[in-house]
Amino acid sequence: IKHKVRYRSAKNIVDEMESIYESCNGYFSFSDDVLTLHEKRSIELCDEILRRGLRVRWSGMTRVDIISEKLISKLAAAGCHDLYFGVESGSERIRNEVIDKKVDDEEIYEAIQLSKKYGIQTWLFLMVGFPTETKEDVEKTVQIGRKMGADFIGIHLTIPFPGTKIYDYAIEKGIIKYDLFDKFAQGIGWDDKETFNDKWPYVVPGELTHQYMVDSKKRAYLKHYLRPQWAFSRLRHWIISGDRFKADLKLIKMAPHALLTGMTKTANA
Fold first, then answer.
1. Range of the structural domain that residue 73 is part of
2. What does residue 156 show for φ and ψ, rounded to 5 degrees?
3. Which of 7, 34, 49, 171 has the most CB atoms within 10 Å of its CB?
């Protein structure tokens, strides 16, 4: 496989946005792993949206350590309403020593506050179940959304994907067999109704249990979302923008299940 990325031009992307504008009512979600990896390209995209006068709302994933006020202000002007930050863990030790993220708490806080300054809602995507993770590390993940002032959090149990250090760790520790992914790709040992997440093993560090990890997710959701401050914040957004309420409707449908079980599931529109 060639390690080469082919970038689409701003014109090409916005042409497509225009072509499907009516079918999606002007709402778009960019699926790039790191949407703002190249600031110049991101600004060119925003400028093209603004030049055409498109009334759009869109979201995308990025990192807290590659944004600037110049970029955030441009994203907001071009219709960005949600940014998803993959910070993975609330523990600096896990981020810096285990997964080599090299992001500190101050960078996370600054990115969230900068986004809020320009009216962009923020999400923190987190995981529980990293190698060597302790209960102290997990507690930091439970707390980080509120600590940093993020609007939303999403937490998942860590799954070792092929090509990652955690995958190699899982094979070395006997958590998964070396040929598990090949069997999955060939459909060997999988029921037609089972999904990848149903069958793929999780990493459960020595000090933790699978149930503790699930309970920690539930606790994080309860602590973050069942707060008067959070409820008033959502109400304010809904009063200002009816579109925001519509965008949050799926989350509202998912909330009871997530808050009661700590697990998320797809909500019907």
1. 10-158+202-261
2. -135, 155
3. 49
d(Cα 4, Cα 268) in Å, to the nearest integer? 37
- Over range 168-188, report the average pLDDT: 81
Instruction: Kindly tell me the burial class for residue 100, based on how many C-beta atoms sit within 10 Å of its own C-beta (0-12, 13-18, 19 or more).
Output: exposed
* pLDDT average, residue stretch 157-181: 85
- Which residues are within 8 A (CB) of 63 and not within 5 positions of it... i.e. 6 or more apart? 34, 36, 85, 86, 103
Give pTM, 2 decimals. 0.82
Take residue 63 and report the two structure tokens written for it.
């990192």
Mean pLDDT of 183-200: 67
* 174 domain residue, yes or no: no
Q: Which CATH number goes with the domain that contains 86?
A: 3.20.20.70
Q: Quote the CA–CA distance of 90 and 105 in Å, as a whole number.
A: 8
